[in-house]
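Consortium newsletter contribution from the modelling node. Members have asked for a concrete example of what our holo predictions look like. Here is one, prepared for the fe (ii) ion complex that several groups have been discussing at recent meetings.
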Amino acid sequence: MSHGNLIDWNKDLHQMESEVITTTHRLVETGLFDDEHLVRILDTHPRDALNVNTMGIDETDHSDWKEGDASKLNGEQLLQATKEGRLWLNIRNMLTHHREYADLINSIYDELESKVAGFQALERSANLLVSSPTAIVYYHLDIPVNMLWHLRGKKRAYVYPPYDERFVTQATIEDVICGESYEELAFDPQFDESAFIAELQPGQMVTWPQNTPHRVSNVEGLNVSLTTEHKTPKAIRRIKLFRANRFFRHQCGYQNLSTATEGVGYNMKMAAFSVVKAYRKLFKKKEGNYAYPVTFELDPMNPTKVREMSAK
Ligand SMILES: [Fe+2]
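And here is the predicted structure:
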């Protein structure tokens, strides 16, 4: 089933590629995000595509982000633990595992493509985020373009100026894209003076240009949001370019590397890097891939809902 008129949208492609945008949507009215539906999703979702995390309270210390084992609780217990504890459930790959939600997510993107001349959402994916009333997500960036569709509870998204070296350097974005470092970034509370702060209520969304750093603090109630990710042709070129730039920075010592995703310089750089990629494939040299170790289990009897594995 496809859905019609889900989003109020009046931005053009240039604005989508350069500005932080908020608007309203009608995803909640589908009825797909109440407790009953969440429990059904959690009970049927493959557990290897579900992350459960907990975190500290200091937004500058992302080393407190911990990965847990969600395998032993059923959907109802997981939801209850999230309502009462300080957890962040990331239900990944909704497009692959839930037909009804895949239809909804494709409807969102089809509608945006019909409303924005030149906009193409390729490599679409979506994760459903279910998180505790006081949970936070540390300062980080994402590799594709993402959109946060808020559905339940209240949260505050801090979005920092895009394409600005003061907030994240080009070299750091290259490292994240190449899997050489975590998506979490060093955060200075003074950054907040420059932040765009989106106070998200159910029925609101926020999006920002590719690789823009951001962080999130929940404000009230169980929070449910859908985070959709896509790549435009330009976003795909940017990812390839940053991979190439990292190679030229580290192997050839170049520092002032252009971020232009078109033109002669871009084409020459990509041609040179394709030779490097072929070499790496030949000798099976792989890029790094960071993942958090699992360090806690969920314990419904514990007030925090978390039990460190070493404390067993
Ligand atoms: Fe993010």
